[in-house]
Design goal:
By secondary structure, the protein is an alpha/beta fold. Helices cover 39% and strands 20% of the residues. It is built from 10 helices and 9 strands. The strands form 2 sheets. Strands 3-2-1-4-5 form a 5-stranded mixed beta sheet. Strands 8-7-6-9 form a 4-stranded mixed beta sheet, sandwiched between helices. The radius of gyration is 21 Å and the shape is globular.
């Protein structure tokens, strides 16, 4: 029997659940539960009919089949029997069949259940029904767009094992791999101040990369980008390559769709919070789109 570990079970309510009101939640009507199920975090937000946030939850990402149990556990602690509406944007859930299956598992938790991929949900929240391209660059990377005719296209978003070039995970993975190769080629692989100890000290990681989670590799990106800003050769080279990959995703989507020579691009994800990275990316993107 598969054991489920609930992050709510052994932790104090105050640590994860952030109450915005002390009244009895179950007495309220027209509650909407929004779930953002991503590669790094799972976020739950409960809002009332005025769209005011009354409960929130954020935990590290868990397997998709554990999401219904997590939601039920959260609602139980919030004393909510059933929501009026439940909206979930789930990573990797693109096929209609998979959306229906997840909706069936969640139907008892709300009167109305809406299941989209996390990218589709993010696009809807950003553009509504208007045309545009959404580029997300965080742990993973993907571009998703819709044109004036309502057609949609995507590029990237294949996951860490198949791609996600330019993402935080890719930046961290490439740095570790190339740093190891550099140390080996220079004969430092067996020395005390080799790769096996230096990145471990500099970035707070374990020595064996194979044992790291995608989230831990992606966490390297922040430090690597900061080093790139200081023009350290290897980090700078990797960041430039990442930017080229990300701009390529936008160009790829734009070629598949009809934007009538006017494209609105929205940028989301942790990588764009760094001003240096954002500035370099925008410069590259403008140059790339001008060639179309």
């Amino acid at each position: 029997m598969k054991k489920f570990f609930s992050p709510l079970s052994n932790l104090s309510r105050e640590k994860y659940l952030k109450p915005c009101a002390r009244n009895l939640i179950y007495m309220l009507k027209n509650l909407t539960l929004s779930i953002d199920y991503g590669g790094t975090w799972v976020r739950l937000v409960l809002t009332n009919k005025k769209n005011k946030k009354i409960r929130r939850l954020k935990i590290p990402s868990i397997p998709l089949d554990q999401i219904p149990h997590l939601i039920q556990s959260a609602l139980n602690q919030w004393k909510v029997n059933q929501c009026s509406q439940l909206k979930i944007g789930a990573k990797g859930v693109w096929k209609k069949k998979n959306k229906r299956m997840l909706a069936l598992k969640l139907k008892k938790l709300a009167k109305k259940v809406i299941v989209l991929s996390d990218v589709e949900m993010a696009y809807k929240n950003t553009f509504g029904t208007k045309p545009g391209i959404l580029l997300i660059a965080g742990t993973g990377s993907i571009a998703y767009g819709k044109d004036i005719k309502g057609r949609w296209a995507r590029a990237g978003g294949l996951g860490p094992k198949k791609g996600d070039e330019g993402s935080g995970y890719w930046i961290g993975k490439e740095f570790l791999k190339r740093k190891l190769n550099l140390d080996k080629s220079s004969g430092k692989g067996i020395q005390k101040k080799s790769y096996s100890s230096l990145p471990n000290k500099s970035f707070g990681l374990n020595k064996n990369e194979d044992n790291k989670s995608v989230r831990e590799s992606a966490a390297l990106a922040k430090n690597i980008i900061e080093r790139a800003e200081k023009k350290e050769p290897l980090p700078y080279k990797i960041v430039l390559e990442a930017i080229n990959h990300l701009a390529g995703l936008v160009v790829n989507v734009s070629k598949k769709l009809d934007f009538n020579h006017q494209i609105c691009v929205s940028l989301q994800g942790g990588l764009f919070k760094n001003r240096f990275f954002l500035k370099l990316f925008l410069k590259n993107l403008r140059k790339s789109l001008n060639y179309l």
